[in-house]
Amino acid sequence: MSLESFQLNGRNALVTGSHKGLGASIAIALAEAGANVGCHGRDPQPGHACDAIRAFGKKTFYFAGDVADDPKVCSGLIEKTVDEFGSIDILVNNAGIIRRAPVAEHSIEYWNEVIAVDLTAVFRLSQLAGEHMIRRAQGGKIVNIASVLSFQGGVNVPGYAAAKGGVAQLTKALSNEWAAKKINVNAIAPGYMATDNTEALRNDAARSRQILERIPAGRWGEPQDLTGAAVFLCSAASDYVHGHILVVDGGWLAR
Q: Which residues are catalytic?
């Protein structure tokens, strides 16, 4: 296999939740590998990813909207990608939120919000992108961002753990139906990453120490730690990889 198998020249991608953090790093990495990349976030103003993508000479756009609040956002994202680029060959479902509270105090509003963003939107976006890929009959790549909590229960995050467990199973279900159509559906399960979602944990000295003591790599993950896995799963190098959940956790689950 040559390094060209990891190139994304001529491919058109959408990365949700790419205003900053993990999504922005993934979007930039896909552009560096050769793809045109559409970006998305809830913030009305684009983040730095769009400028970085243009610096690689690739097309981009920014679509603002909440995938939980408005069902038209999911369809609008897919339509915008196709309108701007001509097709959607790659979808990275990265948009996600987390709400922390003990189970006895975890409100139904927290639960509904997390499930809507972290699971329902992943299904709807995958469904819409998959329909387009099937019609074109040229295959495609869908990469969902799962979590180590796809395998573990976590503490004080029941909605998040349930949603990410669902993402893992949804990945397998979609793969079972679409692998024969040359649509690869896989997931990346990050460990404890230094993002806004983990700020509360990192600011808790005792909890942060406990986490770091369990990570064999001895550090929190950084957004760029996911980019190699993302490029691999979006490229021809992974054409025979279906329904896999690739853990990128510094060794957390192996401990």
A: 160
